[in-house]
Specification:
584 residues; alpha/beta; Rossmann fold; 2 domains; 7-stranded mixed β-sheet
């Protein structure tokens, strides 16, 4: 097989647009064999002569095997009614019907990918990247322009979509898992997200091509109205509908009992897996497989991920009786946050506050499960996971892409231009890295007045002359603080606030409620209620009291001349915005 490919800029996906097949083997009859038809269907495609290549497409366990059997049976029975028509099955799971100047080839080898967008050609439970309407428009425009691809070669898609909740339950059984509630809660966000992208792309492609590029099938509609759905599908493939007699034969070939029999005979492709692939699915039948709390949680997430069109299609009667939710919806994806801050800048205290935030929020959340991995806290929610970084594999004073010593006061910071800072920040956003299944894509930087940091450090080290210590190290500490601020502020601005937040130690001291409210908006889709924040503050103050040192307290510990000197040095080393924050 050879492919002509197209790449959508910024998306990074290559899709096969036209297929040239090898010489076919001898045709094999579909099972079970069908009698000759007494009534012929209308003539094949009332369209341009040539080769038509169709691709079945859909999420795993969404009905793609059913569509494969449907189309195979449709091609076979249509071919029986056409003079000089041949039907064959070719390597690579291609079903081919040739009659006169037309050839229709239906392929299944790329059926789980989303054209032009990243999705594995198999089960894919990674959180999909955000896809804008402009991305969808660009992809569907490219697809519509490529529809006629050289010398009579045409291509199109046969996508099938199914309620993501049903997809997950079916996948759970397919994988032989024992806890489908846990499985559904963990992967509803990703599955609903990919379903939404798939639907948006094909709907846009259908609209741009005026219905010639794709024909979307919904699993539930196919179950409820088999005859009309198959008739419409045949109209799209052949240019004319199958007859009622042909549709009845297709129904017999693709019934549950028939497909189970064919599976037992080894005629159902399983991709090498030794599993039972054919299951009897029903609309909203997943209700009996999941707890009410699970149903409520995954339904809520699905409603927030899907378009109104899909939500109206996939609505079940039992939803009116589901329990009410207290749901704080973590932002999408499995993300692990990294704290960054200089020595004695408040890193440990802020880390404790965030862990209390996750624990307290989870205790108030119907859909959350709190998990512990060693000393880390994992906030596991069907909308997204947050993993706190308590046992960092690197020092917590880390500035991404900058090598530095643990003792910042001993080493001068590198001199980096604004352009270099912006480039490093862009790389950090683009390639956040992974820790197991988690993206290290969140940063919280805590900053404190370098003058107060030096006094605290002097006292911790029991250095007798803090004036001399402060004068010696103010340049390096102020330099690292400025570098950290510039880097994370650039990450914040370039990611539009999605990848980093900067917290000032003094602001957290003076206005805990507002600062934690702002921080909670970073982790969750909506800020936490004030009552929850009050509880967090009370527990934090009891368990991890902040130092009694307030802003500008260094003036009480240093000579006036020393305070003036280190202030001048700090002003020279720092951005004006920082100097203004720490003005005494």
């Amino acid at each position: 097989m050879t492919c002509d490919v197209a790449l959508l800029p910024g998306v990074g996906f290559v899709f096969c647009l036209s297929v040239v097949l090898a010489q076919p083997p001898a045709p094999s009859a579909i099972a079970p064999s069908a009698p000759a038809l007494s009534a012929r269907a209308p003539s094949v495609r009332a369209m341009e002569k040539g080769d038509y290549h169709f691709f079945v497409n859909g999420e795993p366990k969404s009905g793609t095997t059913w569509i494969e059997f449907l189309v195979r049976s449709m091609l076979y029975h249509f071919c029986l009614s056409e003079p000089k028509c041949t039907y064959s099955e070719r390597p690579g799971r291609h079903h081919v019907m040739s009659v006169r100047e037309w050839k229709i080839d239906v392929g299944y080898d790329l059926k789980h990918m989303i054209p032009y967008f990243k999705h594995e050609n198999s089960f894919d439970f990674s959180e999909p990247a955000p896809v804008s309407d402009a991305d969808i428009d660009a992809a569907s425009t490219m697809a519509s322009k490529q529809k006629a691809h050289g010398g009579g070669h045409w291509f199109g898609w046969l996508p099938i979509l199914r309620d993501p909740r049903a997809v997950l339950v079916s996948t759970c059984y397919h994988k032989g898992l024992h806890d489908c509630d846990k499985f559904a809660m963990e992967f509803i966000s990703a599955t609903a997200g990919f379903t939404d992208i798939r639907h948006r792309f094909f709907q846009s492609a259908i609209e741009k091509s005026k219905g010639t590029l794709a024909r979307m099938t919904f699993y539930e509609r196919l179950k409820a109205d088999f005859v009309n759905e198959v008739r419409d599908l045949s109209m799209f493939i052949f240019g004319s509908p199958l007859s009622d007699a042909q549709i009845e034969l297709v129904r017999q070939n693709t019934s549950f009992s028939s497909m189970k029999k064919q599976e037992a005979e080894g005629l159902v492709p399983k991709g090498g897996a030794s599993v039972t692939k054919v299951r009897k699915g029903t609309s909203c039948g997943f209700e009996k497989d999941l707890r009410n709390e699970t149903l409520a949680c995954i339904t809520d997430v699905m409603r927030h991920r899907l378009s109104p069109t899909l939500n109206s299609l996939w609505r079940c009667d039992f939803e009116d009786d589901l329990p009410a939710l207290a749901f704080s919806r973590a932002r999408r994806g499995k993300r692990r946050f990294t704290l960054s801050g200089g020595t004695l800048s408040g890193v440990d205290w802020l880390k404790a506050v965030v862990d209390i935030m996750l624990r307290q929020t989870c205790s108030e959340d119907t859909c959350c499960e709190l998990r512990n991995a060693k000393s880390e806290v994992i906030f596991a929610s069907p909308s997204g996971w947050i993993r706190s970084a308590q046992d960092l594999p690197f020092n917590p004073f880390f500035v991404p892409n900058v090598a530095l010593s643990l003792d910042e006061e001993q080493v001068d910071s590198p001199q980096l231009s604004s352009a270099m800072i912006d480039e490093m920040a862009a790389q950090a956003i683009k390639n956040p890295g992974r820790t197991n299944a988690f993206f290290d894509g969140l940063w919280v930087a805590v900053l404190r007045d370098p003058r107060d940091v030096l006094v605290s450090l002097c006292q911790r080290k029991a250095i007798p002359d803090c004036d001399a210590f402060a004068k010696e190290h103010i340049s390096s500490v102020a330099g690292w603080t400025d570098l950290r601020y510039r880097f994370f502020q650039s990450v914040f601005e370039q990611s539009k606030g999605k990848s980093a937040r900067v917290v000032f130690y003094e602001a957290l001291q003076n206005n805990f409620t507002d600062e934690v409210l702002r921080l909670s908006d970073f982790f969750f889709e909506a800020p936490l209620p004030s009552a929850v924040i009050s509880t967090i503050q009370h527990e934090a103050q009891e368990r991890f009291p902040m130092t009694n040192e307030t802003a500008c307290s260094f003036r009480q510990k240093l000579l006036e001349e020393t305070s003036a000197h280190i202030t001048d040095v700090m002003r020279d080393k720092m951005a004006p915005a920082l100097s203004q924050v720490w003005r005494c």
